[in-house]
Automatic annotation (TrEMBL):
Protein name, per record: VWCE protein
InterPro entries cross-referenced by the UniProt entry: vWF_C/EGF_Fibrillin, VWF_dom
Top-rank taxon: Eukaryota
Record organism: Grallaria varia
Any Gene Ontology biological process: cellular response to virus
Residue ranges constituting the VWFC domain according to the UniProt record: 1-53, 53-114, 111-172, 178-238
SMART domains in the record: VWC (SM00214), VWC_out (SM00215)
SUPFAM superfamilies, per database record: FnI-like domain
Keyword list, A-Z: Glycoprotein, Secreted, Signal
Principal location listed in the UniProt entry: secreted
Length: 269
């Protein structure tokens, strides 16, 4: 399609097809999505896989942490959490009394709340199942529960991790780098490795965090006629002299190129 790809390169084509360049051939297949939740939202624009950062319930998109009642009107309370919808039905106290409205879930509303086999006084607060991730309150015989809001994670979803005893997922610790990979050269250097990237006056080192730090060597002019040695950064004043394009060794005498009556000598100072 008019685009050149290197061998081994991968890309995504319109229509959510994953393609790869292999031995001069383009191999494509449908993008495979792993969906770790029961009510994911449709894939955002420009992406192929549904997302679990909200919920799609009965055709209605719900934001993370939204508490709502289903359309059936059975007095259940539902919550959207990490792409999953959980619903709870109210528990009515034993006995009956006249109801002022046929839409009431229970026939009466006593001051106390009966919830999951326990009685709670009006205004009492407690945690659902003792997990600390929900806070419930008894209000006029009804129990209202809300989930602990979770922060928005900056890492990709496949790096989310729910640790034991925690209510919200956190980002997995990134793996410790073992070296530095230079994509433009396809070379990997271990941590602590020194190398010259082609300029003898530049020296690079692979840092512990996987980054590359480079510095240039500053040469000090210590003599007027140094020798330039190929592959060496700084001129050499100890090996001899460079004069009028010629190289002379230490203590060597030679006639001047400008005046044949003058004799010159190469001295290291």
């Amino acid at each position: 399609r008019g685009v050149s790809w290197d061998a081994g390169a991968r890309w995504t084509e319109p229509g959510c097809r994953s393609c790869m360049c292999q031995e001069g051939r383009v191999l494509c297949d449908a993008v495979s999505c792993s969906i770790p939740c029961s009510h994911p939202l449709p894939a955002p624009a420009g992406r192929c896989c549904p997302t679990c950062t909200g919920c799609l319930h009965e055709g209605v998109a719900r934001a993370e942490g939204d508490v709502f009642s289903p359309s059936a009107g059975n007095c259940s309370i539902c919550v959207c959490l990490a792409g999953n919808v959980s619903c709870l039905s109210p528990e009515c106290p034993p006995g009956s009394c006249p109801s002022s409205s046929p839409s009431d879930c229970c026939s009466c509303h006593p001051g106390k709340c009966s919830f999951q086999g326990h009685m709670y006084a009006h205004g009492a607060r407690f945690s659902l199942d003792g997990d600390g991730c929900t806070t419930c309150v008894c209000q006029g015989g009804e129990v209202e529960c809300s989930f602990t809001p979770c922060p928005v994670l900056e890492c990709p979803q496949h790096q989310w991790h729910l640790r034991p005893g925690q209510c919200c997922s956190s980002c997995r610790d990134p793996p410790v780098p073992t070296g530095c990979f230079l994509e433009e050269h396809g070379v990997e250097f271990p941590v602590g490795q020194l190398w010259s990237p082609g300029d003898p006056c530049e020296l690079c080192i692979c840092q512990a965090d996987g980054s590359v730090s480079c510095r240039r060597t500053e040469c000090l002019d210590t003599c007027p006629n140094p020798i330039l040695i190929p592959g060496q950064c700084c001129p050499d004043c100890s090996a001899g002299c460079t004069y009028m394009g010629r190289v002379f060794s230490n203590n060597e005498t030679f006639p001047s190129e400008l005046d044949p009556c003058l004799s010159c000598i190469c001295l290291v100072r």
